Amino acid sequence: MPRPQRPSVRVGDAAITCDVSEVAMVTTQLRRSQVLPRGCHKHKADLFASISLASSDILESLVSKFSLRGRADKFLSTALRVRAVRDSLIDHPELCDTLGYISDAADALRHLTPFVVDRAARDLRAVFCSDPSHSTPPSPSAPSSAS
User: Fold this and answer.
1) Partners of 15 in the beta sheet?
2) 20 to 3, 4, 17, 100, 106: CA distances (angstroms)
3) What digits encode the pLDDT tens for the residues 77-100?
4) Whether 144 contacts 63, CB under 8 Å
5) What are phi and psi of 92, to 5 degrees?
6) How far apart are CA 55 and CA 42, in angstroms?
7) pLDDT for 3-47, tens place per residue?
8) Rama region for 70: left / alpha / beta (φ>0; ψ in -120 to 50; rest)
9) Does residue 102 contact residue 47 with C-beta atoms inside 8 Å?
10) What letter would DSSP give residue 131?
11) How many C-beta atoms surround the C-beta of residue 60 within 10 A?
12) What is the pLDDT of residues 51-78, one digit of tens each?
């Protein structure tokens, strides 16, 4: 039985092809990704959109070529771990590495929001500022003069 057509979700300049069951989640994530984090320039936003689109296109190609099912037809990181996919890329280590980087970046974009990133930075500063042993780097000890 042929697979149903996967819809494309477009928000702003970004578009992602996904399963019907994922349309609401993808739409929400795309809307969030349109808000640039503090200090994020337009070229970085373009990179984020490029990563999202590329990972979606790569995943769609792998699903089509290898008839992937389950989590492997939803997540590029899982698809890249399928034996048939790994075996087909064995003679292309640089491509395999690059696909892994794209997958890692797509996973990070899926899990991170400007709020999460800002909160992590604030929490890290709070930890280091409240712990005197981390507030300043230790000074190097004077070399011993052995005569």
Assistant:
1) 10
2) 12, 9, 9, 26, 19
3) 999 999 999 999 999 999 999 999
4) no
5) -130, 65
6) 20
7) 556 666 666 666 667 776 676 776 677 666 655 555 555 566 678
8) left
9) no
10) -
11) 17
12) 888 898 999 999 999 999 999 999 999 9
